[in-house]
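Subject: complex prediction, re-run

Hi both,

The earlier run crashed halfway through, so I resubmitted it with identical inputs.
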Amino acid sequence: MDEPREPLADELSDLAGLLQTDESLETMLGHVADIAVRAIPACDAAGVTLFEHDRVTTAAASGPLVQRVDNHQYDTDEGPCLESLRTGEIRRSPSLADDTRWPKFRGPTLDEGVVSCLSLPLVIGNHGTGGVLNLYSQNRPFEDADEVIGRRFMPPASVAVANARAYAKAYAVIDQLQEALQSRDVIGQAKGIIQVREHCGPDEAFERLRDLSQHRNIKLRDLAKAVVESPDEILGV
Amino acid sequence: MPEDQEGLARLSEILVFEKPLGGTAQDVVDVARRSVAHCDGVGIQVVGPDGVAARATTDSRSFDLDTLQDELDDGPCVESLRDGEHHDLEPVTSDERWPRFAPSARRAGLVACCALPLVAHGELIGVLNLYAWPAVGFAGWDRRHCGTFAGRASQLLASARAYARTQVVIANLEARLAAIPGTQ
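This time it finished cleanly. Structure:
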């Protein structure tokens, strides 16, 4: 039986530490895929598929083969990765040539030279299945021993993905809030300009902005920006 | 799996977004006490740009020992936080090394203290204090494991601290946004 190449334990427990402020989610998942190729004997290529906003994407891959095989799954809407994602369970095919479960996925994948595959769901308690670690072999079957190592891989990989996604999500919220603030700022400035020029109150100024925005069919924020940049042009001299 | 390896594995399974920073620090000290041999209590301080960002201890005795070092501004933990180096109070260490802390701590039954700096991406982000107060003898620390544990804990806490900061930024932005009268 193949033993995992040490220091697998070290690499696995390093995974969760990979989430760093200066490292993107894709880079971090790239490390996950690379460590999987090194640690799991039958594994020739590895990638991480993420499920977000009702879409599946290959967020990281150890090489170009992964994206091609993943695409066969996405295109045919079947295969071990998608099934693992939907069920939260491991899917292993020791011999794709003899496997009848995914007829549409099988042909093009065999054409890529992939003979065996193993999909490991990345699940965090009540946070659902956030992704799947997909392993492909071009030379030998994934056996029980490979799956045993793969299982050891799942908790830290799942945590690393969950941590990174939480971080990415927090940053997206920050971006949205900053944009909203800037938008409010520019509308506030435009209102101020109108109040001074047209000797009116803030509500009237806002109504004027809104009317202009509707007449010109320009978004309120864009119109406000135009007022701030060239008030004469928009409001008349 | 041996206890020390299991401790590292458990550390790698801590989610940084489920609890506030103090909760994550608490998880780290609890795992440390279980996985470091001959360790009777653990304390931790995580620092940020505005001073101490989180503290946690496994038990009241460790809390008292952490507090004592703070109050006396003396001891291995205080020194680690100052210079980012590893410092030890061992049974054979002269009281002169930490003249204010060592005599009081020994009177309180402390036999050994190992202060490990928490360093992530070159930045000193805190200190992990291992305490031992065995009834008889002291078998010493497994320094390699202690160092590895502190390294992993540093990475984890750096991530947790970074995540905690995003939550502060979000709260501040939301407050600023709420303070602007509605424009729609």
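The mean pLDDT of chain B is 91.

- K.
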